[in-house]
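Example record for the data management plan.
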Amino acid sequence: MSYVITLTTLDGKQIDFTCKSEQTLQDAAEAAGFFLPAVCKAGSCGTCLGRCTQGDYHLDNYNPSLLSENAREHGDVLLCCTHPDSDLQLTAPYKASQIRSGKDTPRTAEIVSIELIAERTMRLVLQLLPDQQRGVTFEFESGQFVELDVFELNLKRAYSMSNTPNLEGRLEFLIRLQPQGKFSTYLQHTAQIGYRLKVSAASGNFGVQEQSLSPRCFVAGGTGLAPFLSILQRMVDRGEDHPTQLFLGVNNEQEIFCQQELATLKQAIPHLQVEICVWQPSDTWTGFRGTPVDALRAYLASIELLPDVFLCGPPLLVEAATQVAIDAGVNSERIFCERFA
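Corresponding structural encoding:
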């Protein structure tokens, strides 16, 4: 059986395609020439999140931390795992401009800087090499991510850009070093300035809702800070001064990073407040003691006007912070998540 699928984007545009019952919605969309945001295509990353507003469907296995029971009750689905049992009406949390009409050829980039900036955190800076058609121009929106491909090792990992779009083709990333991690091992023991990687087209729909006048609350777990640095710098570039609270969570003081960058942003955005949350601090730590989820709970209980809440980090942090925000009265439509795959 084939069914008609209608997907409505954040800006009200509609795309229609057919999907057989044995196909996933993601595969059917690509077969019709619509390349929706996706990375793993296996229910592990949450990039292909959508919401079914009408119709029947069933899902393949997926990482349960990506869809809470509450989200499932509201019709949230992962398009890479969803099969139709009838015609479907769906909404997508991204604009039509983020749907590509064809597969983009990966770009080649060169490592121009690689440095350890804190315990287990590296900053990686890439320079795109000129492309015959596009030069070094690389389009992305603050909050998006790319896949980095070490092609000789057949090794791919997705990371958010920590810098803003630019004409120089420069891409910056904050990368958490994982014990025995393949990409971490490559960065620590193999990668050097001048080495080349492949860079996919930018993907993802994480970012601020420009039309919203609500205060903003950013909650970052470790290198989940990366997209927020990009978003905050874009706010500076556009002269935005939304009241904004940022909570950055780390395990100990040795893991704190990007303090100078945050100090510069605080000077440029008068209504930006930053709180470093240390889970296992030393006796000399005078800042917040606990997780960013603890800090978020206390913050939401202390204010009258609830903010839009943006979460980026490990799935358990995102899930816990989401529940805290909902318990405090934040509408689920105003909670935006980016989970580490």
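Summary line stored alongside the record: Residues 107-199 form a domain with the Elongation Factor Tu (Ef-tu); domain 3 fold (CATH 2.40.30.10).
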